[in-house]
Amino acid sequence: MSADSAVALGFAAVTCVAGTYYQPSGWRAFDGLGYVLAVLTALPLAARRRLPFLTVLASGACYAVYLGCGYQPSVNWWTPVIGLFSLAGCRPVAVAWAAAVPVAAVTVLSGLAGRLHLALVVAQAVLVPVVAVFFGHTRYLLVRANARLREVTAELVAEQEARARDAVTLERMAIARELHDVVAHHMSVVTIQAGLAETVLTSDVPTARGALRTAAEAGRGALDELRRLLTVLRVQSDDDGPEAASYEAAPRLARLPELVGGAAAAGLDVRFAQSGEPVPLPPTAEVCLYRVAQEALTNVIKHAPGAHVDLTLDHTPDEVALVVRDDGAGGGPDGRARRSTGPKTVPGSGLGLVGMRERARICGGRLSAAPRDGGGFEVEVVLPVHARHRADPEGRGERRT
């Protein structure tokens, strides 16, 4: 690296300058060989981060040769120490202690060449490598801590992005459930009524006209529901004036009679009963109950048109239960089976019961959907008055949609 090369050249230049202007008596004069050995001792620092252990060994070996040639020891002795410091800053402490041995050896050799007291030689040989390893290892730990911090930060960012993607997915699933409930219910009514109108178009004009009227009303209801849903999704801009369209809120339990009326117009014999004292429910719970009732009635319209249906809503202080039960007869209002020329049933998508269970789970309730003994089908959803998020038990079975 250019920075390490600059450090190596800097130490080589400083060593040569010091050897040139500081030549105490008693040691060999700093000649051409001294310059070469001084440069060779410093140059290994250019590889102190790529090959730190070899840097220490090469620098220490060159310094030992320099001392063996009789040159004064105060010029080059810090170069192996810098190498040891660099090694301790990028390698585990065990490797640093292993490299400290040759550094301690050349430090002893430098002290003896400088004719120092033995105690000072020993102290210097111990303290210099220990201090170099200590500060280098402190840097090593700091570098690793910073690297781990970067990893944790990256993991947190990735987790945040994953949660954002999950939130988008859940929102899309909720939108898909809403669209499924709206379109499936109203289009089932339209399909059944259109088929009925086709069947009796020439034989019973008033009935055909009533069926077409019901189909038209169901189509308009579907458009209103879709418009409301898309309005909820729309991001209002700052320049929207007071005339911006506002549509009714999500359907609530107060609209159950209207839903029952629409199902009756589609040919079902629906009996609606409510018991208990109504208690305030969270908006999500009311939407859940309404959508479950809507989906259950849609299933009957699809698979058992003309069946007898009992829809009950039972309020208690702790929970509210909605039950939609049909006899599966598929007969008309007079109890007779439909003729083969009548409107056909509508195939299901397989998503209705899944969506109902998911709604109940989100509201902290439970849902069961299973065939009845003796024929027919029953859907029951029980929600707590105060919504609690908990695991959703599996239903007892599925039949349709």
UniProtKB/TrEMBL annotation:
<keyword id="KW-0812">Transmembrane</keyword>
<dbReference type="Pfam" id="PF07730">
    <property type="entry name" value="HisKA_3"/>
</dbReference>
<feature type="transmembrane region" description="Helical">
    <location>
        <begin position="94"/>
        <end position="113"/>
    </location>
</feature>
<feature type="transmembrane region" description="Helical">
    <location>
        <begin position="53"/>
        <end position="74"/>
    </location>
</feature>
<keyword id="KW-0547">Nucleotide-binding</keyword>
<dbReference type="Pfam" id="PF02518">
    <property type="entry name" value="HATPase_c"/>
</dbReference>
<dbReference type="InterPro" id="IPR011712">
    <property type="entry name" value="Sig_transdc_His_kin_sub3_dim/P"/>
</dbReference>
<keyword id="KW-0808">Transferase</keyword>
<dbReference type="InterPro" id="IPR003594">
    <property type="entry name" value="HATPase_dom"/>
</dbReference>
<keyword id="KW-0597">Phosphoprotein</keyword>
<feature type="transmembrane region" description="Helical">
    <location>
        <begin position="120"/>
        <end position="142"/>
    </location>
</feature>
<dbReference type="GO" id="GO:0000155">
    <property type="term" value="F:phosphorelay sensor kinase activity"/>
</dbReference>
<protein>
    <recommendedName>
        <fullName>histidine kinase</fullName>
        <ecNumber>2.7.13.3</ecNumber>
    </recommendedName>
</protein>
<feature type="region of interest" description="Disordered">
    <location>
        <begin position="327"/>
        <end position="351"/>
    </location>
</feature>
<keyword id="KW-1133">Transmembrane helix</keyword>
<dbReference type="GO" id="GO:0046983">
    <property type="term" value="F:protein dimerization activity"/>
</dbReference>
<dbReference type="InterPro" id="IPR005467">
    <property type="entry name" value="His_kinase_dom"/>
</dbReference>
<dbReference type="GO" id="GO:0016020">
    <property type="term" value="C:membrane"/>
</dbReference>
<feature type="domain" description="Histidine kinase">
    <location>
        <begin position="289"/>
        <end position="387"/>
    </location>
</feature>
<keyword id="KW-0472">Membrane</keyword>
<keyword id="KW-0418">Kinase</keyword>
<dbReference type="GO" id="GO:0005524">
    <property type="term" value="F:ATP binding"/>
</dbReference>
<dbReference type="InterPro" id="IPR036890">
    <property type="entry name" value="HATPase_C_sf"/>
</dbReference>
<keyword id="KW-0902">Two-component regulatory system</keyword>
<feature type="transmembrane region" description="Helical">
    <location>
        <begin position="29"/>
        <end position="46"/>
    </location>
</feature>
<keyword id="KW-0067">ATP-binding</keyword>
<dbReference type="InterPro" id="IPR050482">
    <property type="entry name" value="Sensor_HK_TwoCompSys"/>
</dbReference>
